[in-house]
Write a structure and sequence with these properties.
By secondary structure, the protein is mainly alpha-helical. It contains 13 helices and five strands. The protein binds tryptophan. Tryptophan binds at residues 4-6, 8, 41, 44, 131, 134-135, 143, 145, 149, 152.
């Protein structure tokens, strides 16, 4: 079992990234026989306008969040995508097999390109091919991703089988998606119908992993709710998205089921539930935030971790690129 996943260094990580993704990555490290690779996908981050002066720090910040959240860099490779040249190389090789029609149907491309498709960059269009390269280059067997990345993963599977068929080789492995976030789909604190997101306008809609205790308290206190007390049964939350979200967060942060949380809080108003949620979030996030700040305060150590992770990743990726080129008939140089 080889597990690979990645996040973009586009902005601060929030509670949704932690509960929906990072926490699962941490648990996967304990799968017997599993090798985990956790990448900061900086090459993907430049497919939209970005600040070159901030990219290195943004990459370090995501790496620090991985480690502070529980990824053990001794066991798992933590590295920057751009430090492994094979990602870009394999992307080019795979791009010759990726059909324009399929890429045009990618919903993320349609969303990000918006109305002005003529002006969208080739990198944004080819984003899913680079993602396929990220995965296939390690012959990853399992890829934990959110529901929104399922279509991209399908393309990676497709490219693996297209390659194998075209070249008559059992070379690439078809990666299995691990769809994550079903247990803890964290929504915006301002609108229970929207996912908690780093791109939402209001910072009050999300809890960042870098928020201090006062900020977390303020955001939860101001979180949108309804006037009813908490219900006794979890299915009564279905029509109350904001209430459901806060209970979901409470349950995820305390490793309990929603039913279990409701058994404790049924009939009680949000004026009592919210302070309990604040205490829980602060208690759980404080060690992560402080470890993150510690790592970010010592970039030399963080850079050593990233360099070691890149060495490990290159040791796998390099030979796979070479093997791919051999199968494709390139000069052996
Ligand atoms: N596209 C993914 C996202 O936005 C990030 C990503 C890039 C990724 N390459 C990957 C995730 C490879 C898993 C595996 O969430």
């Amino acid at each position: 079992m080889r597990i690979l996943s990645g996040m973009q260094p586009t902005s601060h990580l929030h509670l949704g990234n932690y509960l929906g993704a990072l926490r699962n990555w941490v648990k996967l490290q304990d799968e017997p026989g599993a090798e985990c690779l956790y990448c900061v996908v900086d090459l993907h981050a430049i497919t939209v306008p970005y600040d070159a002066g901030h990219l290195t720090d943004a990459t370090r910040e995501i790496a620090a969040a991985y480690i502070a959240g529980g990824i053990d860099p001794e066991r798992s490779a933590v590295f920057a995508q751009s430090a492994v040249p094979g990602h870009s190389q394999l992307m080019w090789l795979l791009s010759t097999m990726a059909q324009l029609g399929k890429l045009e149907r990618m919903t993320q491309f349609k969303d990000k390109a918006g109305k002005n498709r003529e002006r969208a960059g080739l990198g944004l269009f080819a984003y899913p091919v680079l993602m396929a390269a990220d995965i296939l280059i390690y012959k990853a067997t399992h890829v934990p991703v959110g529901e929104d990345q399922k279509q991209h993963l399908e393309l990676a599977r497709d490219l693996a089988s297209t390659f194998n068929t075209r070249y008559g080789a059992e070379h690439f492995i078809q990666p299995e998606p691990f769809i994550q976030g079903e247990g803890a789909r964290v929504m915006s604190l301002r609108d229970g119908s929207q996912k908690m997101s780093k791109s939402a306008d209001s910072d009050m809609s999300r809890i960042n992993l870098t928020d201090d205790a006062d900020t977390i308290a303020k955001k939860i206190r101001k979180a949108k709710t309804d006037p009813e007390p908490l219900p006794a049964a979890a299915d009564e939350l279905d029509a109350r998205p904001e209430a459901k979200n806060l209970v979901t967060i409470y349950a995820a942060m305390s490793d309990r089921t929603k039913a279990d949380v409701l058994a404790e809080f049924a009939g009680r108003p949000f004026s009592e539930f919210k302070p309990a949620l604040v205490d829980l979030c602060v208690e759980r996030l404080a060690p992560i935030t402080s470890r993150m700040n510690e790592l970010l305060g010592d970039t030399a150590e963080l850079d050593r971790i990233l360099a070691k992770g890149a060495d490990r990743a290159r040791a796998i990726a390099g030979p796979v690129v070479r093997e791919t080129m051999d199968i494709m008939g390139f000069w052996k140089g």
